[in-house]
Design brief:
The complex is a heterodimer of chains A (528) and B (433).
Chain A: H1 20-40, H2 48-71, H3 93-111, H4 113-116, H5 126-130, H6 132-139, H7 145-167, H8 172-199, H9 224-232, H10 234-259, H11 262-265, H12 270-277, H13 290-318, H14 330-351, H15 358-381, H16 390-409, H17 414-417, H18 421-426, H19 428-439, E1 443-447, H20 457-460, H21 468-472, H22 488-492, E2 498-502, H23 520-527
Antiparallel strand pairs in A: 1-2
Helix pairs in contact in A: 1-2, 2-7, 3-16, 7-8, 7-12, 8-12, 9-10, 13-14, 13-15, 13-16, 13-19, 14-15
Chain B: E1 3-7, H1 11-23, E2 27-32, H2 44-48, H3 63-67, E3 70-74, E4 77-81, E5 86-89, E6 94-96, E7 99-102, E8 106-108, E9 121-122, H4 127-136, E10 145-149, H5 153-163, E11 168-172, H6 185-197, E12 200-203, E13 208-213, E14 219-224, E15 229-231, E16 234-237, E17 241-243, E18 259-261, E19 272-274, E20 279-281, H7 295-309, E21 322-327, E22 330-336, E23 348-354, E24 361-367, E25 373-379, H8 385-393, H9 398-403, H10 405-408, H11 419-432
Parallel strand pairs in B: 1-2, 1-7, 2-3, 7-19, 9-16, 10-11, 10-16, 11-12, 18-20
Antiparallel strand pairs in B: 4-5, 5-6, 8-17, 13-14, 14-15, 21-22, 22-25, 23-24, 24-25
Helix pairs in contact in B: 1-7
Classes of the chains: A mainly alpha (528), B alpha/beta (433).
Chain lengths: 528, 433
């Protein structure tokens, strides 16, 4: 990362863009945060429900008022003035303060929840205790560090979602998309699982299940304790388990074929939801260089291979050998995995080979051979599956990918690396959806003939680091695996060049050497 | 190996270089005194506004040039010696060429006003102009008010830039509405209102008489032709641009307003070509002016000249006219010809629709006699280039265009559609007539 060039000369200093109302609103929001901080620092609030409510309302109201003060008096339109002049949004002092604070919070959350006040058997103190009343109200039990996290996460998506809606009040696509992520976070990620938990009793014990959280994002969905819980919960449990499998194998491919991966990544997903709302002010910080794209392709697909191996090993470890007891034995399961992977691999190579870059072909072959030989090795040599203990694989995945990557780096580093680092480099779900989007989907971003002026707004504000301009200025449609369909490139384009749409597969990717507007003969001559 | 030298690293020169590289192994050198790398001139405003950094408006990474074997030289070409096929640089040094492409673009057009050499008087065309503006108008304390002379595309961009730093802006426009020399009246009036709503003091039918300086040679005020004095720290000159050809004065290359070229973009001297803003067509093409200072035409000339240089002689033959711009928050696109009231052809009829609630409008021009569709201006509604290009080629009727307007819509998904409203008004208009 090179240093930010704030403006072009040393004399210039653009006006501070925060007005009096925004200052008051910030004070209210910070007051709410301060209450949480006091709780964290051992202040024992007498009336916890009251103080928790005060804190959450102050944070939410402060954010919303701030947004109204920022946008209400302005014209409908793009509001990126001064983005690269503000410390918080241009990797300045406040960006680092925020990044370090968020990172510390994640470290406590994942590895030292006792410092947040998590006690044994619900005997909570400090911050976690402050959330006990809300937890009891929703699910009947005391709070955990995850309940605290979930509440704050949901609050962030709701409050900053309203901010985003106010910012893009002229853009119906952006508004609908934001209502959608707010709905799925509040309902599916937060309320429904808590209420489902309430249904549990001696005879029914459903695992905590956010229905929209699909494997492999939800990498632990098929672990033994969960599967046991699903099965012991009877028909509902089995239905949920089947839903989990159907989600990734059937529902996801169909929706991605029709609408692209955006149906999930920027309309439903919680990680995407936070990135699109609270992370929006940092979207331009994503790295647009070619080298970053190269790293992205290797890392994200490696994570996908890792999660496939890990899940296969974990499921394999708890299945039985005796087919008379249950049809799904270790061997049957491995054969199923091998068959699915072979189908995906050969299908891609037969039908879509020309759409893959050379390095992608080599990588695909490489990974396929590795997985298959590991499975084969197990068959013929009967060693430990994949050479590693399943539990070791699970734990290292949970630590490296589940905690460090998605939490600490993914969100903690928002103000430094941009809002979609996890989605771009780490999310195995995004890798699967992206693979489908690139090869088997109707979605594309259409470029409007020869109208591009190469200004670079689209690339700058692409949170996934796609160099949108590189395609638009060639008159080429943008069909990239990583595109989450947030629609901001289209919104910030000053010349109406980009449109997200679903259409026929033919001519989805048109590469033009000569753009529309020039001699028709020349276009035909060179473009063919 | 043949050496192609290109003077100017704007859109025209760089497009030519890219296409020559695609089709050949010739040695390619681009010379520029303005910037190290190609940047998007139309995006200068976004750097001042804080939307992007300088490097964000450079479309190619630094490694691109090396990878494509395009040599870059930062130098100012002072003389062109076509007899020896040599360019001489201002700071000494020279370079030989086999083929020369001149793509030096434009400079700000001035009219010899008194005081135009004062500090604080500037255009907005080059990287250096942006640096100057950053120095002249860093904030509203050092520059409480700026005056912009000229009501065109650069003028409104400059106004938008300055307003993001809360600098008061007075715009002097000669016409009775903003850009009325190009836009039909209702559109020019809508845009004028929008500009005013952004806090710009828009002075219509007002012209600059002279610029007044203080003892240090800095701008103090402007005086209008009506005699009014307007105090200001910056005077933005946005009265159009003119080809940058002064360095050719002593050369054998024939010039008029710009460098005179034939349809192959060849100048009067063999192996010397001119493209982009600095070129002037000897015979105007269609209804186009002989000098076109537009991003797209620069690009298209670059695409064409590359073919000619690579042994496939091609005439520059631009297709249907198109253009686009953004006036503060209102996007504008145009396809085909829609003329202003002053320039309107006697056969041209116009149908105008304006949204009652929002700042959106559409003007469709067509032939009075045979109803042939001639062009469209669209504000606040995005339309498809490809569709209008096809309809213009197919010489569709205005009725057909209005009926099928939906096909051309390019607004984002879920946006409100206005086609039926437009269609109703179109039908209604003839019932009343």
């Amino acid at each position: 990362m090179s240093t930010i060039q704030r403006n072009m000369s040393l004399t210039g200093e653009p006006p501070k863009t925060i007005n009096t109302q925004q200052k008051l609103a910030s004070a209210i929001g910070l007051f709410g945060l301060a209450l949480l901080l006091l709780a964290l620092l051992n202040v024992n609030f007498p009336n916890k429900s009251l103080w928790l409510t005060a804190s959450l309302v102050a944070i939410g109201a402060g954010t919303v008022w701030f947004s109204i003060a920022a946008y209400a008096h302005k014209h409908e339109g793009i509001k990126n003035d001064g983005v690269y002049f503000k410390s918080l949004t241009s990797k300045g002092f406040w960006a680092w303060i925020l990044g370090i604070s968020l990172t510390l919070f994640y470290v406590l959350l994942y590895w030292f929840p006792q410092y947040l006040g998590l006690g044994n058997n619900g005997d909570n103190t400090d911050l976690v205790a402050l959330f006990d009343p809300l937890s009891r109200f929703l699910n009947g039990g005391p709070a955990s560090q995850w309940f605290v996290y979930g509440t704050l996460y949901t609050l962030a998506i709701l409050a900053f979602g309203i901010k985003f809606i106010l910012k893009y009040c002229h853009n119906k696509y952006e508004k609908l998309r934001t209502y959608s992520v707010m709905f799925f976070q509040l309902g599916f990620a937060f309320l429904i699982p808590e209420l489902m938990f309430r249904l549990n009793n001696d005879s029914l014990s459903l695992p905590y299940y956010d229905l929209k959280n699909i494997w492999p994002l939800n990498y632990y969905n098929f672990e033994q304790y969960r599967v046991d819980q699903f099965i012991s919960a009877g028909d509902i449990g089995v239905a949920l388990l089947i839903f989990g499998v159907v989600s990734i194998l059937i529902i996801t491919p169909i929706l991605t074929y029709k609408y692209g991966k955006r149906w999930y990544c920027s309309w439903v997903c919680g990680c995407g939801g936070l990135a699109e709302t609270a992370g929006d002010p940092f979207r331009h910080l994503s790295d647009k260089r070619l080298i970053a794209w190269k790293v992205e392709r290797w890392v994200v697909h490696s994570v996908l291979v890792f999660v496939v191996l890990m899940t296969t090993a974990v499921v394999h470890s708890y299945l039985g050998d005796d087919s008379s007891k249950y049809w799904l034995t270790k061997d049957v399961f491995l054969i199923c995995v091998a068959v699915i992977l072979t189908l995906v691999f050969s299908g891609t190579f037969i039908f879509k080979r020309e759409a893959l870059q050379k390095d992608a072909q080599l990588a695909a072959i490489g990974y396929f051979v590795i997985i298959m030989s590991l499975i084969g090795l197990h068959y013929f040599a009967a060693t430990k599956l994949f050479l590693f203990n399943a539990e070791t694989l699970r734990q290292s995945y949970g630590f490296l990918i589940g905690a460090v990557f998605s939490g600490v780096i993914g969100v903690g580093f928002y103000p430094i690396f941009g809002s979609r680092v996890w989605c771009r480099f780490g999310c195995p779900m995004a890798a699967i959806l992206g693979f489908q989007q690139r090869l088997f989907s109707r979605f594309r971003i259409t470029t409007n003939g020869g109208q591009c002026i190469s200004c670079g707004n689209c690339s700058t504000y692409c949170e996934m680091g796609i160099d949108v301009r590189a395609y638009a200025q060639k008159g080429e449609n943008i069909v990239r695996a990583s595109c989450v369909g947030c629609g901001i490139c289209s919104a910030v384009c000053p010349r109406g060049v980009l449109k997200l749409e679903n259409g026929p597969l033919q001519k989805r990717i048109d590469s033009n050497e000569i753009l529309l507007g020039n001699d028709v003969d020349l276009m035909n001559y060179v473009n063919e | 190996m043949e050496h192609v030298v290109i003077i100017g690293n704007g859109i025209a020169g760089v497009t030519a270089a890219r296409h020559i590289r695609k089709r050949s192994d010739k040695k390619i050198t681009i010379i520029s005194a303005e910037a190290d790398h190609f940047f998007s001139r139309t995006a200068l405003m976004y750097v001042y506004m804080g939307h992007m950094r300088w490097r964000d408006i450079e479309p190619y990474e630094a490694s691109f040039w090396k990878k494509n074997r395009i040599e870059l030289i930062k130098a100012y070409v002072e003389t062109v010696d076509t007899r020896n096929k040599t360019l001489h640089f201002k700071d000494g040094g020279s370079i030989n060429y086999n083929k020369l492409i001149i793509a030096t673009g434009s400079v700000t057009n001035t009219f010899g006003w008194e005081g135009q050499e004062l500090n604080g008087v500037q255009g907005l065309v080059t990287k250096q102009d942006l640096e100057k503006l950053e120095k002249n108008a860093p904030n509203n304390k050092e520059c409480p008010r700026a005056v912009i002379v000229g009501g065109g595309l650069i003028g409104v961009e400059m106004a938008e830039m300055l307003r993001t730093r809360d600098i008061e802006v007075t715009m002097l426009v000669r016409e009775p509405a903003f850009w009325a020399a190009v836009l039909p009246k209702p559109e020019a009036e809508m845009i004028s209102q929008h500009i005013i709503s952004h806090g710009v003091d828009l002075r219509l039918t007002t012209e600059l008489e002279k610029i007044v300086g203080d003892a240090h040679g800095n701008v103090k005020a402007v005086i209008t032709k009506a005699g009014e004095e307007i105090p200001c720290c910056v005077v933005g000159i946005t009265t159009g641009v003119t080809p940058q050809i002064s360095f050719l004065e002593k050369s054998k290359i024939e010039t008029g307003k710009g460098i005179l070229v034939n349809r192959h973009l060849e100048t009067n001297v063999e192996n010397v070509y001119a493209i982009g803003d600095c070129a002037q067509q000897r015979e105007p093409i269609g209804q186009r002016p002989p000098v076109e200072a537009v991003w797209y035409t620069g690009r298209m000339m670059g695409e064409t000249v590359a073919q000619t240089i690579c042994g496939n002689p091609f005439e520059y033959n631009p297709g249907n006219w198109f253009n686009s711009a953004k006036f503060f928050d209102i996007e504008y696109q145009t396809y085909g010809w829609v003329f202003s009231d002053k320039k309107r052809k006697e056969y041209e009829a116009q149908f105008h629709w304006e949204c009652t609630k929002d700042l959106r409008c559409v003007t469709i021009s067509y032939h009075k006699e045979n109803n042939q569709f001639l062009g469209i201006n669209t504000f606040g509604i995005r339309m498809r280039h490809e569709v209008f290009d096809r309809w213009l080629n197919e010489k569709r009727s205005a009725d057909f265009v209005i009926q099928n307007l939906k096909q051309a819509n390019f607004d984002p998904e879920f946006y409100k559609k206005y086609e039926s409203e437009i269609q109703n008004q179109f039908i209604h208009q003839f019932e009343n007539a």
